[in-house]
Design the sequence.
């Protein structure tokens, strides 16, 4: 049975463009693969731990190969529990709105917690870094209020730290099979917004059929 994990990072539940398209993808994917188990992590409904002194000390103790204290082990186990959701899934779906040219702080918090050696990546002095999520597939829905096309007044190369950062992170943790859907111009009025969402939902449906 395929496990589809949806990680959402928008606090908006009703009007979120990224959530609307992601939900459409899930619905179509289920049509093609009805036995799929869908899990959802809403980062705004979770109490994410702080990467505090215990976690930081555990990180460097692990790098040095020294034993962890009880409190350090508890902090590290919590990070492993969070990352386990990604390890268990076959297909990862992320819905990511654009905040200040980047990703929401809740998603960055989540990434900072789980992107640890022997949790999402390994390191060898000779071969370097290796992502531990290799072989998995990801679909990412990006939502943006403006346009980031090369001919717009917000050129993507200079302003896009959303898609470029997030897909760099996916590659770092081993996920290279990535499909992306971009919803743009959601701030250009209801007619443009509605059209952009419809187009993105159609693209998401095509990707769902391809992946199922």
Sequence:
């Amino acid at each position: 049975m395929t496990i589809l994990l949806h990680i959402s990072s928008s606090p908006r539940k009703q009007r979120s463009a990224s959530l609307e398209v992601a939900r459409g993808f899930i619905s179509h994917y289920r049509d093609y693969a009805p036995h799929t188990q869908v899990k959802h992590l809403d980062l705004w409904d979770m109490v994410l731990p702080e990467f505090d002194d215990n976690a930081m000390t555990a990180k460097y103790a692990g790098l040095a190969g020294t034993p962890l204290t009880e409190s350090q082990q508890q902090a590290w186990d919590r990070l492993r529990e969070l990352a386990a959701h990604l390890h268990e899934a076959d297909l990862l779906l992320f819905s990511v709105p654009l905040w200040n040219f980047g990703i929401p702080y809740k998603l960055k918090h989540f990434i900072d917690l789980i992107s640890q050696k022997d949790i999402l990546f390994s390191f060898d002095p000779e071969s370097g870094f290796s992502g531990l999520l290799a072989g998995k597939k990801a679909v990412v829905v990006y939502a943006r209020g403006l346009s980031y096309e090369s001919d717009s007044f917000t050129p993507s190369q200079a302003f896009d730290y959303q898609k470029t950062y997030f897909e760099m992170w996916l590659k770092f943790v081993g996920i290279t099979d990535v499909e992306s859907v971009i919803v743009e111009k959601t701030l250009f009025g209801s007619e443009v917004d509605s059209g952009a969402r419809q187009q993105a939902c159609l693209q998401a449906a095509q990707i769902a059929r391809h992946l199922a």
